Each structure stands twice: as structure tokens, then as C-alpha cells.
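hey can u check if this looks right to u? its 132 residues, i copy pasted from the old doc so theres a chance i mangled smth
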Amino acid sequence: MAYITKQRTLLSGFLRARGEAHFSMREILDFAHRNGIGTATVYRYLDKLVQDGQLCKFNTDSLESGACYQWRDADCHLYHFVCNECGKCFHIDCPQLKSVNAHIRENHDFEVYLEKTVFRGHCAACAGKESK
């Protein structure tokens, strides 16, 4: 049984408070460092939460953000989007995308794991920067 430490309590509170929002490793580390929690402690605890199924982790392949996370109380079975420019990670609950998944399952005998599916592109803010 793991000890419930002050650091774990603070990190859990921060992660749970985000609700269904995604958050980057940078955001987590900024919070942790402001509260005197070391980087190694953060990585170990996040790995444990992911392994225990309490936290969803999405690799962004971004050197800046590395990964984004979502607390498991939220629905991790949605389509996830990562901006190639700023690294922002967010999800979209769209009936049309759900029909794509149903089509793939019914017509191609393939089950897509949405919790691991990430679409890459540009968010509206970064796309707007490019057009200026």
C-alpha cells in the first residue's frame, strides 16, 4: 500500500480540479515546483496514476509538452486533438466522429481505441496566426 503524502495529495487535488480539461506536463511541473514537489516525484506519481487507470495519458510527440493528461473521471473515450504549433491538447465529442468509428467497426472489422487516438493539426488560434 502506498503512503498518502502531502505531495501526492497536492498533485491529486490539482489533477482532479481540472475536471475534463487536458493539461500538459509543463502545467503539472509548474504547479509542482511552485509547491515544492520535485520533478522525479511528479513523474513517478503520474506513471502510477496512469498504470492504475486514474489518469489518461496522450503522447503529443512535442518536445515542448511531451504528453498531455486527463483525469479519468472524465470521458477518455473521445477523439483527442493536438496542435502541432502550440502543443495544446483537447477533445471533441462529435456525433459525426462517433459515426466514423461505428463505420470502421462495422465495415472494416476494426475497433479503434479512442483513448489512444490523437489527431494532429493546428488549433484555431495557431491557424489564425498563420493566416496573418
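DSSP finds five helices and six strands in the chain.
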